Amino acid sequence: MPHVVPSTVSRREFLKASATAATVAATGSLLPSGLTHVAASEKPTVPLGKAEYCIFLWLGGGACHIDTFDPKRKSTGRKDPGSYYDAIDTAIPGEQVCEHLSRTAPILDRAILVRSLHHNVIDEHAAATNRLHTGRPTSGTIVYPSIGSVVAYEKGAAEDGVPAYVVMGYPNLTRGPGFLGSKYSYMYLTDTNAGPAGLKRPDSVTADRQQRREQLLAGLRDGYRQRNENDTKIEAYADVSEQALRLSGPQFMSTFNLDQEPAALREAYGSEFGQRCLLARRLIERGVRFIEVSSNLNFVNGTGWDTHNDGQLNQHLLIQELDQALSALILDLEQKKLLDKTLIAVATEFGRPPEFDGGGGRGHHSQAFSGVLAGGGLKTGQVVGVTDELGRKIVKRPVSIPDFHATIYAALGIDTTKELYAGDRPVPITDGGQPLAEVFA
Q: Residue 89 half-sphere exposure, CB side, CA atoms within 13 Å?
């Protein structure tokens, strides 16, 4: 029987067929080497969660997993691989963490330790940071959106007059909206007390003068829109500009007045990083959907989490700072009945090997490292994934970065099977990620 070619083929069908043909040509199989086929009917069905917010704690530089959330036997010296600190028991039976996580350890029944994260970016901070934020390799043809921008696109702000996405740290392309457009970008700040500098009106500009400016701008903008109805870039810019004007009002700006909080609570959160975590809690109360809080903007230990050379000697300062802030955030959210509504995710670009380098620090290690998920209505008090005796390799339940992202999306009630669109090009919301079924109650 002659082969019949359909008269019309959709672009999506053509791309799928091309991808299949390329895989068969390269591997002789419909599957990449080493993977086992799982029929669609066999894939676990994960119920969508009911969390409303996400606070994403970013440990930039590469936090050492075996010195924090996945401790191994303690090293006896520079030439002996192993953890740098002693380990202590946690609220999860049979599980331990670093001794400097002493505040967090007793309340880890509110969290999930994910000890088997991995990717293939080696020795390159920028590319690894991009991987953790977008869930995909860097592409020369498309700029993918960050996890925060996807959440902003899918969920929007929970209240009117607030941004959907805030970054407490310096602006960076890896946190951006990519092909989703500027409407789903972030508002950033580095000063927790003053709030976003770009939203503050100069003292010389009175309220009446500001109102006249806004009226003039609105007229110019509306005229341009009418003359250029198909200019989507200008439309997105106008939307962002209008949102910024709404955010500059006194109601939202009062969120940044941390002096409104009890002194004892501010003290419980601790350092500058802790105060940013406290502000994150205040922002979700206002309706901000996704907040990234960057750790160690002030380089407490001299090197940040990138603990080469002498950075290793002062790593405990960062771990203690994280411990105080994370434990205070969990307990504060719990006390305010917000923990089940708020997913806390702790992430970093890669871990560290068990060996020490010539300067006494550690190199980079992307084959196995740890993350944390807390609250969010998940089935907490468990560990996902196991690494070997020194934390070099994963021996049980590997978790890819797309899996990690898919779990965060599912916890927030976002369908992880849907597609986004870069123009007319369909892009899966994750790069093949599957939510961790065992963390959903």
A: 3
